[in-house]
Amino acid sequence: MQDPESLKQFIADVGRMMHEELSLVLPSNWDVPETLRASMMYSLLAGGKRLRPVFVLAATEAIGHDHKDAISIASAIELIHTYSLIHDDLPAMDNDDFRRGKPTNHRMFGEAMAILAGDALLTHAFYLVSTTPDRCPNVSPATALAITKELSIFAGAMGMVGGQAADILSVQGETDLERLDYIHTHKTADLIVFSLRAGGLIGGARPQQLQALEIFGQSIGLAFQIQDDILDIIGDQHKLGKKTKSDETQNKVTYPYLMGLDQSIQKVEQLTRLGKEALLDGAIPQPQRLLLLAEYLMSRDF
Amino acid sequence: MQDPESLKQFIADVGRMMHEELSLVLPSNWDVPETLRASMMYSLLAGGKRLRPVFVLAATEAIGHDHKDAISIASAIELIHTYSLIHDDLPAMDNDDFRRGKPTNHRMFGEAMAILAGDALLTHAFYLVSTTPDRCPNVSPATALAITKELSIFAGAMGMVGGQAADILSVQGETDLERLDYIHTHKTADLIVFSLRAGGLIGGARPQQLQALEIFGQSIGLAFQIQDDILDIIGDQHKLGKKTKSDETQNKVTYPYLMGLDQSIQKVEQLTRLGKEALLDGAIPQPQRLLLLAEYLMSRDF
Q1: Residue among A224, A215, A291 nearest A61 (CA)
Q2: Dihedral sign, CA of A99, A12, B157, B203?
Q3: Chain B residue closest to A150 (CA)?
Q4: Interface touch B152/A120, C-beta < 8 Å
């Protein structure tokens, strides 16, 4: 069962399930202004790999627990990811007109509504986490509260938002590798670490197992971002669904810019190996799917 | 003790305490980019009446509980209020250059950093709520989780953000009283209702008491916003600390615009009376301070 084909099947299954879950995430009887609801749902259902939900559900299963109890956490992290994309695309930030081949949120609904849709998605992520015990009797209030705390840290001022702020403040020629690691770690890896730890917490993971999931997430998350930078140089823009060479055009500081392409490719391989080793050392009962996922992300061309 | 002077003293004390609390709210050992930290703290410590913390702490005491256990919830709601002001002031929203006599956040730190500071403050509010049991052993994880859920509802898509979206979408001549009530209730009253209910939950309030606090908050919150609209017409701009007649200049739909000034003043009095009655009917052990607060807000000129 645990071959690359079954992993692709799993990712496709999670994608379909998440699309269904996310389309129901804002109760239909909630009195939300129509345009705000439309703006939130537009970006939420615009597609994407649903990679963070894949990490949540795979981590819960790796601990030997049914992934059903983790679905609302998987939705929550996708809301956080989606809000961050909406705000990142704003004219004051990256000023992007298109994402995944569709007009960005502010191009469709205007800047004010895009800011509010992001705020509402961020806030609603905490609704989903805090109401998990109402839907899943196996999840205790204490566990849901622990996940709330972790989400507020990994998505906040010294997590994802911190990484985004450091990215905006970074200047080519002044940013060294340490600063770039801060940006990549917080902007990208932190939500992956959260996804893995939250999946573990739902599964009842012990501290040693959580630690292993965290190190795995840090390594794979950093590797994922470096691979993104590499694909921006050597990737196929049809497979990627976005323009390549954009980092160079925008004078972005990247791993290939600082270390060269070959060393960056080696770094991705090294980080993937380190992540897999941490997982194997961490007494995770069923690590196979996460191990395959690490390989799959390292060798992706999309 | 429960005279208007002691109420003013209480408000002043809460203001001082909150200033101290808020200045420590982002741990100094957290690795937050300096400019992001500065941007968050700039708006957080820019002053203001700290009215929502006053409601939280007064509600906890009204239930007969020490307000010490409610301080981090009071901080959390002030973070939410502050983030909403930063985002509201943005060029894409109200485009305000000054607030409380100081340059707005985006005028000081740029639009991108202001958006991120708002996002980080919103996220950090949930950190403060979710870590309350770590600081206050009297507060159970279940209570903290219940407050997390309420915050996500009252501050979210059908709460404060929903009210803000409805306000942006409103057009003079097309907005009737029902729509205006939606805007005022959600944009303003919802955070006041949350503050009262959260204070009640920390104090161990029974359902009947929570219900009374909620109705009180809805009435007082709506009265507060109508009074704001009235003061924009008849107020003294030195006492208010902001320009008057701005609603008229911006073609804003307000209560005085729809009902006239006299009827608006009567409405404030009627809502205040209703709120006080609900509180007296709700078996609240020590309602005096909240009753005085309702009177005080109705007759304010600032």
Answers
A1: A291
A2: negative
A3: B127
A4: no
The terminus-to-terminus CA distance of chain A in angstroms comes to 24
CB pair distance less than 8 Å for A90 and B31: no
- Whether residue A145 and residue B148 make contact (CB cut-off 8 A), yes or no, is yes
Q: Say whether B98 sits in a helix, a strand or coil.
A: strand
Cα–Cα distance between B273 and B288 in angstroms, integer?
14
Is the per-residue pLDDT at B2 higher than 80? Answer: no
| Residue B301 belongs to a domain | no
Give domain status of residue A173, yes or no.
yes
What residues of B are in contact with residue A169 (Cβ under 8 Å)?
33, 35
Number of A to B CB contacts under 8 A, please give it.
159
Phi-psi region of A96 (alpha: psi -120 to 50; beta: other; left: phi over 0): beta
ipTM above 0.85, yes or no: yes
- Work out the minimum CA distance from B154 to partner chain A, whole angstroms: 10
A182-237 residue pLDDT tens? 999 999 999 999 999 999 999 999 999 999 999 999 999 999 999 999 998 888 77
Residues 6+ positions from A235 with CB-CB distance below 8 Å: A244, A301, A302
Q: Which residue range is the domain that position B136 belongs to?
A: 4-292
Quick one: pLDDT at residue A129? 98
The CATH number of the domain holding residue B43 is 1.10.600.10
Interchain CB distance below 8 Å, B157 and A122: no
Query: Is A190 inside any structural domain?
Result: yes
How many distinct structural domains can be found in chain B?
A: 1
Contacts of B38 in chain A (CB under 8 A): none
Interface-testing mutation among A90, A116, A171, with chain B (most B C-beta atoms within 10 A): A116
Confirm whether B297 is domain-assigned: no
CA distance A292 to chain B (A): 33
Helix (H) or strand (E) holding B99: strand B98-99
